[in-house]
């Protein structure tokens, strides 16, 4: 029965009844078709899951029996990995990055190659070090992982360990033969440690004979990087270890970087260690030119420059006073000697020459003081 807007029963004609019946049948058939599709997808998922479980159990059986070659073949079928090929994020990579030590052991036991890399040449050791998982990294190294393997971007496991700030990973990689100081074409681990403020990692690498003034073509010296990223602890340690206070990135000095970043403490540190306040970069600007007007940085630099000026002025003034005193004494002696007739004319000429020379020195010193 059909009702109108006033809830009154309305009698439908036969064609209308037939049309409404067909519409209901079409709607139910579409719903039934969708139900069948969902059921088929679910059945396929269950079937794949059952196959994977069965293959995993079979792999375990072969491992127990000691047939690792067959176990590796079945594992490759499970994960779809062709032997010797590159893979994007294999289960070995995932287990290493997530720190799943037992899963990593199982995969290695199944025959996975520990040096398997992705299309970007990222190995499982790269992932373990990036996650800071020391136990996983040690397991991979003990099973033959390449400690100095580099990605297409020149990233090494040691670089990733410095990136994560894991001192334990850094020490272990160095024990297994990692190179602390790499060529210019590879990313510098120590620069990454300084950039992220991982002072302990930096100290470990410096203890392994890394040059404290090592310069990276892209980032500059270690001290310059520390000033650029405002890593005060690293700046202090580098200065204590004798880093060149004026060596930065080409003509840009660490003081330029500190003034640009408005870091008062670092500016004071650099000045205390003898940074050149008047040094100019490629744009012919000194640190004071880069400081924000009326900022604490500007005040600190002006104060330091004022102290330097006063020091130089006082030394010049002292020299001038000393010379003036000697001139005064020499004039008295000259006047006394010229009153004595026994001194020859030659001696008087020499005395006048000395007097003229000392007068010139006094004039130069006075000009410098002014």
Could you explain how this protein is built, in words?
With 370 residues, the chain is mainly α. It folds into three domains: 81-210, Alpha Horseshoe (Serine Threonine Protein Phosphatase 5, Tetratricopeptide repeat); 219-291, Serine Threonine Protein Phosphatase 5, Tetratricopeptide repeat (Alpha Horseshoe), CATH 1.25.40.20; 310-369. 64% of the residues lie in helices and 2% in strands. It is elongated, with a radius of gyration of 41 Å. The N and C termini lie far apart (113 Å).
**What overall form do the CA principal axes indicate?**
elongated
Provide the CATH top-level class of the largest domain. Mainly Alpha
Give the termini separation. Answer: 113 Å
Strand order of the largest sheet: 1-2
Hey, roughly how much beta strand do the residues contain?
under 5%
Number of domains: 3
- Structural class, please? mainly alpha
- Provide the helix percentage: 55-70%
Mean pLDDT, to the nearest integer, reads 78
- Stated plainly, the CATH topology of the largest domain is called Serine Threonine Protein Phosphatase 5, Tetratricopeptide repeat
Please identify, by name, the CATH architecture of the largest domain: Alpha Horseshoe
Largest sheet report: 2 strands, antiparallel
Order of helices and strands: EEHHHHHHHHHHEEHHHHHHH
Counting DSSP E segments of at least 2 residues, the number of strands comes to: 4
What is the CATH superfamily classification of the largest domain?
A: Ankyrin repeat-containing domain
């Amino acid at each position: 029965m059909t009702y109108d807007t006033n809830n009154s029963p309305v009698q439908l004609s036969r064609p209308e009844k037939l049309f409404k019946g067909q519409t209901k049948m079409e709607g139910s058939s579409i719903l039934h078709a969708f139900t069948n599709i969902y059921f088929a997808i679910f059945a396929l998922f269950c079937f794949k899951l059952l196959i994977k479980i069965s293959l995993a159990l079979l792999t375990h059986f072969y491992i127990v029996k000691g047939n690792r070659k067959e176990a590796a073949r079945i594992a490759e079928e499970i994960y779809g990995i062709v032997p010797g090929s590159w893979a994007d994020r294999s289960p070995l990579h995932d287990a290493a990055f997530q720190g799943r030590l037992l899963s990593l052991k199982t995969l290695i036991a199944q025959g996975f190659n520990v040096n398997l890399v992705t299309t970007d040449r990222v190995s499982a050791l790269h992932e373990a070090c990036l996650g800071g998982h020391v136990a996983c990294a040690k397991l991979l190294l003990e099973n033959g992982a390449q400690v100095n393997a580099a990605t297409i971007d020149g990233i090494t496991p040691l670089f990733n360990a410095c990136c994560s700030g894991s001192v334990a990973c850094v020490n272990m990689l160095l024990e297994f033969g990692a190179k602390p100081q790499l060529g210019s074409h590879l990313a510098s681990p120590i620069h990454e440690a300084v950039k992220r403020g991982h002072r302990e990692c930096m100290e470990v690498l410096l203890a392994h004979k890394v040059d404290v003034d090592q310069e990276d073509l892209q980032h500059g010296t270690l001290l310059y990087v520390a000033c650029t990223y405002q890593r005060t602890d690293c700046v202090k340690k580098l200065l204590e270890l004798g880093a060149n206070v004026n060596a930065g990135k080409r003509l840009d000095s660490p003081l330029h970087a500190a003034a640009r970043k408005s870091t008062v403490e670092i500016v004071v540190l650099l000045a205390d260690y003898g940074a050149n306040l008047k040094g100019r970069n490629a744009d012919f600007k000194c640190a004071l030119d880069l400081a924000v007007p009326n900022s604490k940085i500007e005040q600190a630099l002006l104060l330091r420059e004022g102290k330097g000026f006063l020091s130089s002025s006082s030394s010049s003034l002292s020299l001038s006073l000393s010379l003036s005193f000697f001139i005064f004494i020499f004039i008295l002696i000259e006047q006394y000697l010229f009153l004595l007739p026994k001194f020859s004319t030659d001696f008087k000429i020499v005395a006048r020459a000395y007097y003229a020379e000392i007068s010139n020195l006094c004039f130069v010193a006075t000009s410098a003081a002014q």
